[in-house]
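Hey team,

Sharing the Protease Do-like PDZ domain-containing protein run so nobody has to redo it. Sequence (270 residues) first:
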Amino acid sequence: KPPQMPSVGAFMQTLESPAHRECLGMKEGLTGVLLREINHGPDETPGKLRAGDVLMKVGPYRVDNFSAVELLGHRVALSAVQDLWFVGDQAHLLVRRDGKDLELEVELRASTFLVPRSLYAGDLTMRLDYYVCGGLVFVPLTADFLEQAWPNQQDRPAHLMDLFYRTPVTAERSQAVVLLSILADDVNAGHGAGYVGCPLVESVSGQPVRDIADLASKLSHAVAKEKFVSIDFTMASGPYTVVLKSADVPEADARISELYQLPALTSLEL
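Structure output:
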């Protein structure tokens, strides 16, 4: 059986509000959670669930209005019940759609979070990837990184938490790559130093970035072939662009490596 944790592939909203439940046609005593978005990741055939469905039961387990179920005499999160199955298993679901109850057989698939819940991601070995260009230090965003950087969840940047909770893997983006810090040097003057808010990398020279390896490839190409390297980010406050002069980057990289005692400019095998 695959080792990954299974998922029904939906973003859910609790239904604590009596008015909301009544609006959805749920009679007194009926409970469940509202499926707001359905996500099955890239290269997946659409499932039978729809946005707007109310998920009422998973297998024999009834879902309450707070996204919890009773399991082995304890009230636990719905995710604990999903973990009783394996990826590829068929789960019997009861949903309410347009005021009617429907029973569905849905294949459980591997979770498709853009921000992995572990450094292992989908692999069996741990990877700690990074890439440095012109003093800009890039890393993939993971749950472990968020927990280590901001032990108090309330301190975590809103734009990163939105990625964590809601954003799925797509064919265009398989990793969220962020700017961890800026190692101050003349090549990046004017863009700050140290921690600058962990902005999300969007594109290099107008080309969307798929993952950290793709970022490294696009930056290397821009440094070699273009007069300027333009990197677009999304910060908590909005869009932001960093521009480096390509001709200055190679010498700056050597200077930065020596000054900051970097063992290498990247962990990637390029």
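The radius of gyration is 22 Å.

Ping me if you want the raw files.
A.
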